[in-house]
Amino acid sequence: MSSALLMVYMWYTTMLGEGFSGLRILRLPVTLQCPPCRAEDSEVPLAKRNHTAGPHSGSGKGRAVAVRGRPRRPGTPKPKAAGTLGERVYRQLKHDIIHGVFQPGEAINEKVLARRYKGSRTPVRESMMRLQQENLLRLVRNKGYFVSQLTIHELNEMYEYRAELEGFCAELAARRWSDRALMEKLIALAHTRYRTDDRASYEHFIETDTEIHVGIAQLTRNRLVMRAVADVRCQMERIMFAAIDIGYYGEVPAREHTELLEAIQRRDAQAARKLMYNHIVGSKDKVLLLAGGRSHPG
C-alpha cells in the first residue's frame, strides 16, 4: 500500500472512531416499521429511532440506558461458533450490530450483553473494546458504549475511501494473484443472485458480496490491504442490511463482479482498477440518493 493511501486509511479509521459533531446523521426517508429502520419524520437515522438515551440525549442525567436488543429475524443465520468464549461473544455481538439487532445510537451495557450471550462480563468488555477499535461501537466518557452512527458526510467519505482503496486493491490483485483455487471460487460466487421477495436470499447475497471483495484483497497477498478492506466491509454490511429494511434491495452486480474478476484473471491491472472504481462509485450514487430522500434510487 502506498504511503499516501496508508495515511488516508489511518485518518479514516481515526475519523470514524472519534466521529464528527454537528453533522447530519445518515437518514433514510421511510414510512415502514422495520428493524432497524422506522421513519417518524423526514429525517430518520439508518436505524429505527428509539427512546434509549443516547450520548447527546437531553433526558435524564446522561447515563447510558441498557438495551436488550431485538431478537434475530427468522431465517437470519447465527454467527459461526468460535473456539473461545471471548471470541464467541465478540463474533455474536459484531454480527448483531451489523444485522441491526442493536441499532445506531443505542446504548449498550456489558451486564445485559453478558446475559444475552451467556458469558461473563470480562469477555463482553473485551469484545466491546475490540468493536470500538473497528468503529462499530464508540465510548462516551461517563456514559458508556453506544453503537456508532454514520453521518451523510462520513458516508460520502467512506465511499471515496473505498473507491481508492479497493481500486488499488484490484490493480494489485491483477499484478500479484497466484491462488487459482481462490480465483475460481470468486468467479463462481460472482454469479450469485437473489430474489426481492426473498429476504434470506438477499442476506446470503450480502455475505457473498463481502466474500468477493475480501477475496480480491486476499489475492493481493498484502496484509494491510486485506485488513483495510475487511474493516470497511463491516460498515458496508450495516448499510446494506438497513437499506433492505425499507424495501430497497439494490441491483444485482453479477455482471460487474464478473467483468472485474475477468480483468484480474487476465492481469489487466488498469482495467481492474477502473472497473472496481466505477463499481463502487455507482453504488455510492444509489445509496446517497436513498439517504438523501428517495426510497428507490433510479
Topology:
Elements: H1 3-18, H2 85-98, E1 107-108, H3 110-116, H4 121-133, E2 137-140, E3 144-147, H5 152-176, H6 180-189, H7 199-219, H8 223-244, H9 254-265, H10 269-292
Antiparallel strand pairs: 1-3, 2-3
Helix/strand-derived category reads mainly alpha
Helical residue percent? 55-70%
CATH 4th-level superfamily of the largest domain: GntR ligand-binding domain-like
Succession of helices and strands: HHEHHEEHHHHHH
Spatial order of the strands in the main sheet?
A: 1-3-2
Feature tags:
three-stranded antiparallel β-sheet, 2 domains, 298 residues, Four Helix Bundle (Hemerythrin (Met), subunit A), 10 helices, 3 strands, mainly alpha, Arc Repressor Mutant, subunit A
Describe this structure in words.
With 298 residues, this protein is mainly alpha-helical. The chain folds into two domains: 47-147, Winged helix-like DNA-binding domain superfamily/Winged helix DNA-binding domain (Arc Repressor Mutant, subunit A); 152-292, GntR ligand-binding domain-like (Four Helix Bundle (Hemerythrin (Met), subunit A)), CATH 1.20.120.530. 55% of the residues lie in helices and 3% in strands. α5 (152-176) runs parallel beside α9 (254-265), α5 runs antiparallel to α10 (269-292) and α9 (254-265) runs antiparallel to α10. It is globular and about 55 Å long. The model is unreliable at 14-68 (pLDDT under 50).
What is the compact description of this entry?
By secondary structure, the chain is mainly alpha-helical.
